């Protein structure tokens, strides 16, 4: 049972996915508010979100500034919801949402000023490949923002302490970022951490 719920948390699908998506929207609402402040969109930004979920983060950034916001998510349930929410900005050609897997996606190089993700990295078995891919996407002095729950939070949950989630601690994540070519700092927020990684 817990493993099935964990699978839905990773990639919402079908009827159960719609139920889980409502839960995720409520659970991540405050986190997204903080992340939008951290990303701090400007008119000349081109921003990319990995795992945009309902698309509320994309929506808030596009509303905040006259910027471009693109993203990818491998849940069709989330893709449909996000497209509905962002119709206005999609029509204005300022938001472009893709249904697919970031790890296998063909993405442009040196194009984005900022990339961010919320509660996504636990689903990556190896951090080096996605981190290198993000670095390649970023312009000079581009920034990668990550929100991740604390290791204790993940370990103490019956739903996330399963084979569907990889257990990472914040210092280990920062070490990987530095290895790939970022300068990484972090601060604690809520039940987890916000990491700011500047392309070195």
Secondary-structure blueprint:
Blueprint lengths: L1 H9 L3 H26 L6 E5 L5 H9 L3 E6 L2 H10 L1 H5 L3 E5 L12 E7 L9 H10 E12 L1 H5 L14 H11 L1 E8 L2 E8 L1
Parallel strand pairs: 1-2, 1-4, 2-3, 4-5
Antiparallel strand pairs: 5-7, 6-7
Helix pairs in contact: 2-3, 6-8
Question: Can you walk me through this structure?
Answer:
- This protein is an alpha/beta fold.
- 42% of the residues lie in helices and 26% in strands.
- It has a seven-stranded mixed sheet, sandwiched between helices.
- Helix 6 (128-137) links the parallel strand 4 and strand 5 (138-149).
- The longest helix is centred in the N-terminal third of the chain and has 26 residues, at 14-39.
- The model is unreliable at 1-11 (pLDDT under 50).
What is the radius of gyration?
16 Å
Specify the number of helices: 8
β-strand amount:
25-35%
Intertermini distance: 44 Å
The SS-based structural class is: alpha/beta
Number of strands: 7
Mean of pLDDT: 87
Order of helices and strands: HHEHEHHEEHEHHEE
What ranges have pLDDT less than 50 throughout 5 or more consecutive residues? 1-11
Spatial arrangement of strands, main beta sheet:
3-2-1-4-5-7-6
Identify the overall geometry.
globular
Q: Could you estimate the helical fraction of the residues in percent?
A: 40-55%
Largest β sheet strand count, sense and barrel closure? 7 strands, mixed
